[in-house]
Every structure is written in structure tokens, then in C-alpha cells.
Specification:
Layout lengths: L7 H10 L1 H20 L6 H12 L3 E2 H7 L4 H13 L3 E5 L7 E5 L1 H24 L5 H9 L5
Antiparallel strand pairs: 1-3, 2-3
Helix pairs in contact: 2-6, 3-6, 4-5
């Protein structure tokens, strides 16, 4: 089979010059590490983050949580369902706007977050030990400061 002739732009992307593809590849590897650590708590890193934000904001709406994670509300709601089924979060109607749902962490949810925190810390420490030559704190800060539309 003959090799196709790629444009210089396509060659740049293929050579690792695409910021988006590099970030997605790295995000998958990091997510896999954290998910593997959290499997003992029956949580993913995404769910752990959502539980943390609900704990920090006990009257958070589903839409506000979706906005915080840059997700659409329906995708977030589907992801929250397993945690509601397990009794880790509760949901109720907003007192004024009945279309809005208010999320709260249950006692079982708090216990789950606290149990998972030790496993999360293991993942953090593994990231740090495998990347001791990198400034991970600075990198995380820089990523949150990247500008988009």
C-alpha cells in the first residue's frame, strides 16, 4: 500500500504538535491512573470530583454542577444517577423554581468521599513520584488559566 501524502499541517498534528490531541492522550492516561486507584470505592475520578463539589456547595443545582465540569446538564444527570441509586447524593426541587434540582451529599456520600480521599491521595502521590522532575502544581495552575473562547 502506498503511503498517502499528508499536508504539512497534518504532519505537524501527527508528529505530536496538536495541543488538543496531546491533552486528550494525557487526560486518558491520568484518568486511568486515578480510576484504577478509586475502583475500591466504586467511584471514578469524575464522580469523586462531583461528590467533592456537592460537598463543598450543599445547595448546588444540577446546572451549576454541570457548568463547573463543563458538561451539558443531561449528560451530568445520567452520570449522577448511579450515585443517587447508591444513596450518596440526594436531589430535590428548588423551593422557588421547581424546574431546578438541588443536590446534596448524604451521610453515606460523605463517608464514601472520605474513604475515597485516601485512594485519591495514593494516585496524587504516584503522579508526583512518576513526575518528580515536573512542577505538577504549576502545570495544573497553568492549565486552569488557559484561555478559550
Amino acid at each position: 500500500m502506498t503511503r498517502l501524502e499528508l499536508s504539512p499541517e497534518a504532519q505537524e498534528a501527527l508528529a505530536g504538535g496538536c495541543y488538543c490531541l496531546a491533552a486528550r492522550r494525557l487526560a486518558r492516561r491520568i484518568t486511568r491512573l486515578y480510576d484504577e486507584k478509586l475502583v475500591g470505592c466504586d467511584l471514578t475520578i469524575s464522580q469523586f470530583g462531583q461528590l467533592l463539589l456537592i460537598a463543598e456547595n450543599p445547595e448546588i443545582t444540577v446546572q451549576d454542577l454541570a457548568d463547573a465540569f463543563d458538561l451539558n446538564q443531561s449528560a451530568l444527570s445520567r452520570g449522577l444517577q448511579p450515585m443517587q441509586t447508591k444513596g450518596w447524593i440526594s436531589s430535590r426541587s428548588h423551593s422557588v423554581d421547581k424546574r431546578k434540582r438541588i443536590l446534596s451529599l448524604t451521610t453515606d456520600g460523605l463517608a464514601q468521599v472520605n474513604k475515597a480521599s485516601a485512594l485519591w491521595k495514593e494516585a496524587q502521590e504516584e503522579m508526583e513520584s512518576q513526575n518528580s522532575d515536573q512542577n505538577l502544581v504549576g502545570l495544573a495552575r497553568e492549565m486552569t488559566e488557559l484561555k478559550f473562547r
